[in-house]
Amino acid sequence: MADKQNKFSNNINIKNKSARYEYEFLDKFIAGIVLTGTEIKSIREGKVNLQDAFCTFQNHELWVRQMRISPYELGTHYNHDASRIRKLLLNKKELQKLKKTKEEKGLTIVPTRLFINDRGLAKLEIALAKGKKLHDKRDTLKQKDLDREIKRLGL
């Protein structure tokens, strides 16, 4: 019984590290996700990959694609498809704002973080993002190296 409590955790914080390198975030939103029972169990085990995930609009609804949630080990024939598209839950104003800015400026909606809130619900932090050019990526790496050196020297 104690092993079962350690296996599932409410302290889940899965980040998409490559998104910060590839994109410049302009605005962030927190959205709920429509999940099945075995998906939330896999999330609580930390078996999620946000690396290639992106969001699209379909019939005035926001969907996240290519977010891989590994199948639950103990799931039977009720187990979920690992890379199915999942609906995101936002209020109407937020959806309209996202759709309007995405169409006008040619921006991308990228999942940045998956976490479980205080009530035990899985939430996805999404960002309205603009793609970085090669020189922007180099500047990011230089700044990261400088920060690491400053921290190492204790300044």
TrEMBL record:
Its biological purpose: Required for rescue of stalled ribosomes mediated by trans-translation. Binds to transfer-messenger RNA (tmRNA), required for stable association of tmRNA with ribosomes. tmRNA and SmpB together mimic tRNA shape, replacing the anticodon stem-loop with SmpB. tmRNA is encoded by the ssrA gene; the 2 termini fold to resemble tRNA(Ala) and it encodes a 'tag peptide', a short internal open reading frame. During trans-translation Ala-aminoacylated tmRNA acts like a tRNA, entering the A-site of stalled ribosomes, displacing the stalled mRNA.
Name of the protein in its database record: SsrA-binding protein
Family per similarity comment: Belongs to the SmpB family.
Species of the source: Agaribacillus aureus
Subcellular location: Cytoplasm
Keywords: Cytoplasm, RNA-binding
NCBIfam families assigned: PRK05422.1, smpB
UniProt-listed Pfam families: SmpB
Keyword Transmembrane helix: no
